[in-house]
Amino acid sequence: MTLRSVSVTFLSLALAAVILTGGASGLAGSAQAERLVQVQQPRTAPGQAPQTQGARPQAERPQASPAQPPQTLATLYERLKAAGSAQEAEALVRQIARRWSRSGSDTSDLLMARARQAMGQRNGPLAVELLDRIIALQPGWAEAWHVRGLAFFVMQDDLRALVDFREALRHEPGHFMALGMAAAALQRQGDEKGALGAFRALQEMHPFFSGAKDAIERLKPNVDGRDA
């Protein structure tokens, strides 16, 4: 596999995460999940107050399920790190990407949608201009830095891309897509040692990240041999 193909692989995966919007919920239909078991109304004994229509004996009332704690990003990262299959990892990545995409600002969301559209049309300069405005509004939003880094990467401006990927990681250390793109940019710049370190960290964060294992196996002999 060539450097170009590895870079394209990482770019495709990162762009898929950037444009991800929702997806199938995988939840069962509420009608089926909430189907009630009908209980025959018992006869009322003389002098006994009738039961309320539809009421069940106390022993037959279902126990309420304990509320599940909300899934934080930290929890999702830990689950991804311990994922047992590519399918499980993919489902977690979708949840994580949705969290990354939340800006909390209608204006930023609109600008991001336009920036993604510009990137889809291969208009890197327009995407960068729009992302500059987003970052000015919300400098702490890691995804904005990540997407602008992607725009620079497509424009072959690896130095500015690396600055943005690192800034994304500063705001969101678990942003494995930014780390993967940083690894690809380092590799394209000829920094094999830096790329190998980034790929190894990426594989630890996301064991099923496509291309990471192959990149490590290809870079390891050169880097380890050089340091020996």
Quick description:
The chain is mostly helical.
Could you walk me through the main structural features you see in this protein, from its secondary elements to its overall organization?
- This protein is mainly alpha-helical and 228 residues long.
- It has one domain (3-17, 71-227): Alpha Horseshoe (Serine Threonine Protein Phosphatase 5, Tetratricopeptide repeat).
- The two termini are 25 Å apart.
- It has helices at residues 3-18, 30-33, 73-81, 86-100, 106-120, 124-137, 142-154, 158-171, 176-188, 192-205, 212-227.
- Helix 1 (3-18) packs antiparallel against helix 7 (142-154), helix 3 (73-81) runs antiparallel to helix 4 and helix 9 runs antiparallel to helix 10.
Describe the secondary structure blueprint for this structure.
Elements: H1 3-18, H2 30-33, H3 73-81, H4 86-100, H5 106-120, H6 124-137, H7 142-154, H8 158-171, H9 176-188, H10 192-205, H11 212-227
**Quick one: CATH class?**
Mainly Alpha
> Strand content of the residues, in percent?
under 5%
Domains (count): 1
**Rg for CA atoms:** 25 Å
**And the CATH topology?**
Serine Threonine Protein Phosphatase 5, Tetratricopeptide repeat
Instruction: Look at the structure and name the CATH superfamily.
Output: Tetratricopeptide repeat domain
How many DSSP E strands? Answer: 0
The low-confidence parts are: 1-57
Mean pLDDT: 78
Q: Structural class, from secondary structure content?
A: mainly alpha
Percent helix range: 55-70%
Kindly report how far apart the N and C termini lie: 25 Å
Major sheet: size, sense and barrel closure? none
Tally of DSSP helical segments: 11
